[in-house]
Structure to design on (338 residues):
């Protein structure tokens, strides 16, 4: 957000806590699924991701805008924790190897101190990267028979917006949503225990 | 190395897209998915609510400890703790003698100015300072 712009109104930690207490069962299942996806992509377990996200929400480290659904807010918090942990692991590996400098935010520093194993080494980071490369290709191979789905997954991996992907492959919203459901189901079936196994 | 590092970032981005799909799914779709995966959502929710309660309790205890420490720090301002203790006792006696009405409000022990611990003396001076009394931090014994 550019400096000088007003901050969006946010819920207090007590209000966030009240919203979380009121979550229906399906919402907790959603959070479990989201934690599982991020856990596949970072050094942390799903339980750790969920707990750290809840901790950040309750302590006010992360603030929930009043117009954002609390499940979405917690999902975003988990994304941030997962992303921080990957950055922290890379940074620790760089420090251990003494091979260079990297820019680290306050959140990265917190992640380093609180949630990432202190045993990160350049070798461990290389292994993690190699594993990520293997998983990335394995996921894409799942859709070798479906070029549309494969393109969508590649677009996701590149961080493309839904509309960009739809325009790229010429799908309407309904067909796109249908493809997305197929993609998630196929990934879940192929990796029931997560991508790390 | 750069290409390899992109792989982990790519997986985070894919996870974000899958998470978005989960968020956009309707409640009935989510419940159907759970049934298909043989997951009892009520059991999941019960376990997560317990976990949440535990996290909330831990944070509440942490906040209480921090609040206690902050109150203790406020009750003993640096200006008062620097006072020589003999001078502090003398100053307390003088202030109480100057204002019997306030002295009446304090405890019997305080009014006597006897058998008060050093901490009691410093706490009372801090209280008096809060009440607007002139506590001389430079007073020497």
């Amino acid at each position: 957000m550019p400096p000088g712009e007003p901050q969006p109104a946010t819920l207090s930690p007590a209000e966030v806590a009240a919203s979380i207490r009121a979550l229906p069962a399906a919402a907790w299942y959603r959070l479990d699924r989201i934690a599982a996806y991020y856990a596949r992509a970072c050094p942390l377990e799903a339980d750790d991701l969920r707990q750290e996200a809840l901790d950040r929400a309750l302590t006010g480290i992360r603030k929930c805008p009043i117009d954002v659904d609390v499940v979405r807010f917690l999902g975003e918090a988990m994304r941030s924790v997962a992303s921080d942990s990957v950055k922290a692991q890379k940074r620790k590996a760089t420090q251990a190897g003494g091979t260079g400098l990297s820019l680290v935010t306050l959140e990265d520093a917190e992640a380093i101190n609180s949630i990432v194993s202190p045993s990160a080494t350049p070798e461990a980071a290389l292994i993690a990267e190699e594993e990520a490369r293997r998983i990335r290709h394995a996921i894409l191979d799942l859709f070798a028979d479906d070029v549309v789905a494969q393109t969508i997954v590649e677009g996701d991996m590149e961080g493309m917006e839904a509309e960009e992907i739809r325009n790229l492959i010429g799908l309407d919203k309904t067909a796109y949503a249908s493809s997305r459901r197929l993609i998630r189901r196929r990934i879940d079936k192929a990796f029931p225990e997560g991508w790390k196994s | 190395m750069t290409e390899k590092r992109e792989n982990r970032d790519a997986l985070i981005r894919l996870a974000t897209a899958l998470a978005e799909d989960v968020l956009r799914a309707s409640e009935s779709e989510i419940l159907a998915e759970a049934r298909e995966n043989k997951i009892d959502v009520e059991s999941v929710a019960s376990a997560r609510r317990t976990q949440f309660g535990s996290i909330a309790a831990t944070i509440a205890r942490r906040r209480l400890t921090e609040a206690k420490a902050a109150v203790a720090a406020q009750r003993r301002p640096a200006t008062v703790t620097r006072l020589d203790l003999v001078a502090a006792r003398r100053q307390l006696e003088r202030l109480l003698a100057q204002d019997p009405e306030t002295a009446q409000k304090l405890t019997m022990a305080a009014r006597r100015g006897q058998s008060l611990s050093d901490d009691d003396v410093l706490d009372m001076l801090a209280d008096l300072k809060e009440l607007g009394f002139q506590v001389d931090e430079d007073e020497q014994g």
Notes: Helices of chain B lie at 2-24, 27-36, 41-75, 78-81, 85-98, 100-105, 108-112, 118-130. Residues 40-75 of chain B form one domain.
